[in-house]
Amino acid sequence: MPASHDFFVASDPGTARIRTADALVRLGYAVDGAEQGGLRATRGSLALTLLLRAWAGGRSFHTRLDVQVMVTRDGRSVVRLLQSSGPSMVTGTLVGLARSNRAFTEAANAIHAVFAQAGELMASMPS
Question: This protein's superkingdom (predicted)?
């Protein structure tokens, strides 16, 4: 499973950030600003995940994703989705790792779809 996924988009960084945040909010994430114009998205309860470990189901399983928004030399915006290994490391189980990977894939697919629907997706690749 890749630890990150890059989306090359034909929009300015501000628009890319807004579209990415909207896609994550629709999946139930709370999205906050992060360093250097990035985003931090969290979903679920860390306390519940620590208590129930991998058995914290679905969206109650704590997941954290980080997003970096960059600009290439040729002016394209790049949105990089980063998977945090925190919750799966906390649970210490294969089930926890699988839930974390599933949440990352779901988020990558949602971000891909929002840029594709806007006609702004130039390329998308795991990195």
Answer: Bacteria
CA end-to-end span of the chain: 10
SS3 29: coil
Are 5 and 117 in contact by the 8 Å Cβ rule? The answer is no
Is the pLDDT at 12 greater than 90? The verdict is yes
DSSP 56: S
Instruction: Render pLDDT for 30-72 as a digit per residue (tens, 0 to 9).
Output: 999 888 889 999 887 555 555 555 554 555 567 889 999 999 9
pTM of the model: 0.83
- Give the list of residues 6+ apart from residue 127 with CB closer than 8 angstroms, or none: 2, 4, 5, 6, 80
DSSP of 80-120: EEEE--HHHHHHTSHHHHHHHHHHHHHHHHHHHHHHHHTT-
CATH fold for the domain made of 4-126: TATA-Binding Protein (3.30.310)
CA distance 90 to 11: 37
